[in-house]
Amino acid sequence: MTAEEIRLAEQAISRIFPGLQTGWFEVKSPRTTDYNCIGWAVDDDRNWLWPGERYWPNGIRTDESVAAFVAVFATKGYTPCEGGALEPNFEKIALYVNDQATVTHAARQLSDGRWTSKLGSQWDIVHSLEGVCGSPPAYGQVAQILRRPVPISSQDAR
Questions:
Q1: Domain containing 49: what range?
Q2: Fewer Cβ within 10 Å of end Cβ, the chain: N or C?
Q3: Which helix H or strand E contains 147, and what residues bound it?
Q4: Domain count, the chain
Q5: Rounded CA gap, 42 and 151, in Å?
Q6: In a 3-state reduction of DSSP, which class is residue 67?
Q7: Taking 80 as the threshold, does the pLDDT of residue 20 lie above it?
């Protein structure tokens, strides 16, 4: 991305996400429709994971409830946990919901404690856990944090 593309992306994102206007965030990729926030959360940049859309694991309920998304992330080794604080040797995912408790978004914690998100069909960004919270079109509130042990191969890369 060029500096001008990044500047324009930052302006657009700041308008949509009030929590990012006062906080820090960084645009990390150009726009793409190849994957969404759920795919990005599990480090899959080839699939758009959402109930009833391009890809959803067989046998998992197809609603947008926290339970359905917890079940999807369980297939990748994630279990519910308390809080988004960085824990050595664990990877974390945050699920966001709207006022109707419908999942709207997911973010993945980076090894330095910051979070990364794919904003729908738009950009990947790095942000604080609460940076994408707020009323629509923002993603609501964090409803569930999940974690799994960092795979051994990933630990070697850290």
A1: 3-152
A2: C
A3: strand 141-149
A4: 1
A5: 13
A6: helix
A7: yes
Residue that is written with structure tokens 């404690």 in the block: 113
Residue 17 lies in a domain: yes
Q: Is the pLDDT of residue 154 over 80?
A: no
Q: What is the pLDDT of residue 119?
A: 95
Residue 15, Cβ density class (10 Å: 0-12 exposed, 13-18 middle, ≥19 buried): exposed
Pairs from 77-83 (Cβ < 8 Å, separation ≥ 24): 77/148, 77/149, 78/146, 78/147, 78/148, 79/146, 79/147, 79/148, 80/144, 80/145, 80/146, 81/145, 81/146, 81/147, 82/145, 83/145
The answer to whether position 157 is within a domain reads no
- Residue 137 burial class via C-beta count within 10 angstroms: exposed 0-12, middle 13-18, buried 19 and up: exposed
